[in-house]
Design brief:
Layout lengths: L4 H24 L3 H20 L15 E7 L6 H9 L6 E8 L5 H11 L3 E6 L4 H11 L4 E5 L4 E2 L3 H7 L6 E10 L5 H24 L9 E5 H7 L9 H11 L3 E12 L5 H21 L10 H33 L7 H25 L15 H20 L18 H12 L58 E4 L5 E4 L16 H5 L48 H5 L8
Parallel strand pairs: 1-2, 1-4, 2-3, 6-8
Antiparallel strand pairs: 3-9, 4-7, 5-8, 6-7, 9-10
Helix pairs in contact: 1-11, 2-7, 7-12, 9-10, 10-13, 11-13
Amino acid sequence: MILPPQFVYDLLVALIVIGTVILVLGLVKLVYVPLAGWFEVRDRWRRRRQRRGGPAPTALAGPSTFVSVVVPGYNESAVIANCVHSVVASAHTNLEVILVDDGSSDDTYAIMQSLADQYDVVRAITQPNSGKGAALNRGAQEASGEILLFVDSDGVFLPDTITELLRGFDDPRVGAVCGDDRPVNTDRLQTRLLTVISHVGTGLVRRALHILRCLPIVSGNIGAFRRDALQESGLLREDTLGEDLELTWRLRSFGYRAAFAPRALVYAESPSSLRGLWKQRVRWARGLLQTVRIHARMIANPRYGTFGAYLLYTVLSMILFPILQLAVLLIATVLLTADVTLLPVSVWQLLLWLGLPLAIGLVIYAMVLNRALQDLRFAWTLPLWPAYSVLMSFTMLRALWLEATNAPARWNKLERTGVVSVGAARSGLEETALTRGATVPSPEDDVPTEVIELPPDGAAGSGGRLPWGPFGGLTGNRAMARPFPLPSQRSAATCLLPDSVALQLRPHEHRAPQLGRPLPTPSADVRSGRSRRVDARPTPAQPSPDDPWRRPTPAEPSPDDPWRPTPTFPDRPTAMADLFPGPAHEE
């Protein structure tokens, strides 16, 4: 094919310009290398100091911190049992596990009921199919912990996962902590490639962003949140595909930042087919685009410091970069078909020999940080990385088209395999299985990893009623302390308690005790792209003794009381401690 000289010249100029932009965006990521190293040095120094009798990392890291683990599920019968068994076997025992079935069409809810009968700390709730965000919000309504931990149904915890997450709350401004999620099903070519390259995203990037205090996302499959932070910012939006990303950005707009806890490991399933990988990454890309649209005012906003600047880089590298990459491939294809020599062969060889060692070096460096050099056995999959990168560029292009055409937002949940092929995760499950007389199948077995005997029909009870607490939860020692600002009312659903007593849950009413104005909710404040901060301190009226919303006011707390008032922020009043009667827990 013969092209006009001027057209060829224009294509070459465009190729050089676009290639330069891509090169600059890529070179910026090299800054992550020393920052990630400094994170590890500082973390090891702190741990060594604590072993020698230094101060505790944080008050929340103690065994007295009550953690609510919320596990939503839709058709998760193959993996939900492994998840719950691993969570219950945690070294941190002061917890509750709330399982929320989102209208599954399989036996997920029946397995949840069986798990609730097996463990006293587990509760099972079901609701009509409403999406993951609605299921998480429903579980958060029933939660009573100081820390809320959102977990996917396929996650497998290690014994110290929750303890390491709690160590991340080392500052009152840390509103959320993200752990390290790794593939658990390394039985296929695709999942082995994802295992290798995921170390760069977690071991390298997240450590560096933690140092810069601009971690932009708390992963949806292992994210811990302060109750106070969620009460101030509101819960998850139910009209976005990237609810975890949007919540992280919204928390930052309220003055809270996210932290990274690399030793808080959870092993979760990665897509084992190209179709599943495509659906997952298109959903992630659409979630990013929706979050950018909602919080566009935060991008490059100096008010948010390094976080605002990093959001600009995120837009360039995650949205613009894929488009430029596809443009380069298109231009190069056109020039090659016209028999145009782009660069001398020696230059291509130089670029190849510079690029491959750099990529391999970053992977090895990230594995060293993650203490996961055993994953080098999958390094032979690295030549597929360029093809994977091109595929990810096409997912962004597809997401842009779906958003431009206002296509319906579908969850596109992955098909679970139940494969547990990672040694650390399998050893934890096997140890738990020994106490139950069960076994964990090998990765080669094409069966779910847990076999559970379901209770017979009708074993759930006859619907006995239990007393209601002031916020729609049950009364008792673990009743919810304060209501969350929710985007919408939840419909009625059935809850199965460990003693198999069924009760009917009422829709939660969003009432505030004589506040004078509504609590900030995602639907009211964030939908328009504006986040409202609570600056005033209205004094609530004294509730009557018969008011179900009244909470007793204790005497002045002692210095050792873990529920003493929350320390104030330097630039913001302790809004939640003043808006609600009663003491707030320690940050």
